[in-house]
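Internal tracking record. Fields below are filled automatically when a chain is submitted to the structure queue. Please do not edit lines marked as system-generated. If the sequence contains nonstandard residues, flag them in the REMARKS field before resubmitting.
Queue: standard
Priority: normal
Entity type: single polypeptide chain
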Amino acid sequence: MYLSELLRMEHVSKRFGDFYANRDINLSVRRGEVHTLLGENGAGKSTLMNVLIGLYQPTEGSIYLNGQKVQIDSPAQAVRLGIGMVHQHFMLVEAMTVFENIILGDRNTKGVFIDREARKREILELSERYGLDVELDKPVTEIAVGAQQRVEILKALYRGAELLILDEPSAALTDIEVEGLFKIMNKLTEEGKSIIFISHKMREVMRISDRITILRAGEVITTLERAGTDGQELANLMIGRELTPSHYEKAEASGDPVIALRHVDYQKTSKHNGLNGVSLTVGRGEIVGIAGVDGNGQSQLAQVVTGVLTPDSGEVDMKGTRVAKFTPNGFILENVSHIPEDRNKMGLIGDMSVKDNIVLKSTEAPKFSQAGGLRLKKKEIREYAEQMREKYDIRCTSIEQQSRSLSGGNQQKVILARELESDPDLLVAVHPTRGLDIGATRFVHDTMVEARDKGCGVLLISADFDEILEVSDRIIVMFEGQVMGVFSGKNPPIEEISLAMAGK
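SYSTEM-GENERATED OUTPUT FOLLOWS
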C-alpha cells in the first residue's frame, strides 16, 4: 500500500558544457515502492542519481522530499535528508572491518570514545530486522561480494536512510544472492522505505519493480506500472527500436586445442576460491562457456589460463606445448587476450586516455614506436585510436578523454578494441557484459562470435546463464572448483545443466 509521495524531481537538467546528461526530468517516488530506472549505458541514470545524492548540482530544476523543496549540496546533506546510495562499485574501506565501515563518519561516533558495544547492538538489531546477515568483526577484504553489498545497505540504513538507491545491485551477485537481495528489498518496502532500483536485467525489473521509468539519451521516455507492461515493450522503449531475438549459429571446434588443462589443482581444499582436478580444452573456432554460480573457482580458472596464478599441480598445454612458467606477460606473448572481470581494477588505467589504453599492450610494436618502444609514433597512435573509436563505436568526447570518465559499456569497448585487434589465439572473457545494457551486450557478443569465426578459441566465464546459453558452442559446468559436466551448446539440456550448477 503506497502512503504518499516521498520524492519528486521537477524539470531537472544537468549540463556539462553544451552536453545535456539529463534534460527536463520529472520523477516521483512513492513511499514503500520499488521504482526502477531503466536505460542503456549513457542514458543518464547515474548522473541523475549523482544529482540526487548531492555529488552534482542540477543546472536547472527542483527537488522535493516529503513535499518540502530541498537543496542537496553534498552527499553528507543527502544522508541527513535520509537518502542513501549503494554504488555499483562499493565504497568500502578495505583496511577496515565491517563494523568500522558501518560506523565510519556517523554522527554518534564523534570524539575519541565510541561506545562500541552499544553501536554493535544497534547494527545487529538492524541486520536481524532486515535479514542483512554480516560478520561485524571481519575485515572487508575477507568477505564475499554479496556480503559487501549487505554491509553497504546496512551502512545506509544505520544512517537513517528512508530512500535507498541501489545502482546495478545484482551485477556482481550470484542468482542465490540476488534472491536474498530481493527478500531484503521486500522487507524494506513493507516498512515504508522506498527504493530506486537501477538495472538492465529485464527478468529482475519485471520481478521486483512497482513502477518503471525509462530514460533514453538523458530524457524520460515514460513511467509505467510494472503490472501493465512486459520485458519486450520495456526493451523496445529503452532502445528506441525493435529488438529481434538474436540467435548465433553454434560451431564445432575447427582444430587442435589452443589450451588444454589436465588435472589442474589450485588451493583445492577451498570450495569457493580453488580448483580441484580441473580438465578442459578450448579448441580453435569455438566458444566454451563456463557455467556456474559465481564463486565456484571461475576466477581462479581465469587467472590460471591468463598466467596470473601458477597451479599447485596438473598440466597446462598452450598450443600443444606444456606451459613451464606462468606469467601474464608470457601468456600475452603467446597471443592470449583477456577481458578481466573487473574492468576498472584490471582492465583499464583510469587516469590514462582512451587512446593510451587502446595501445597499452602494443607500444613496442614497430607501427607505434621506434627504438623498441623508447620513441612513440604519436601521429600513428592517434590515427589508430580514432579508427578503433569508430570501429567499436566508443562514445567519448575525444580519444584524449580519461577512460575512468566513460560509461561502463564504453570502457568495455576500449578493452575489446585493445584485446581483439591483435587477432588472439585465445580470448579469455570474464563476465564481459556485467553491468552493460542490451545494446552494448549485443555488441560484445557479436564481437566474440566474430573472433571465434576467425579461428580464435574463446573461454567465456559468466554468472549470467542466459549469456552462456546465447553464445556458447560447448558448456562446462563448475561447482566448488570441480568440473561437473560438459554439454553441447546446440540444444543444451537446461535441466541437467541447472542440476550440475547446484552440485547434483
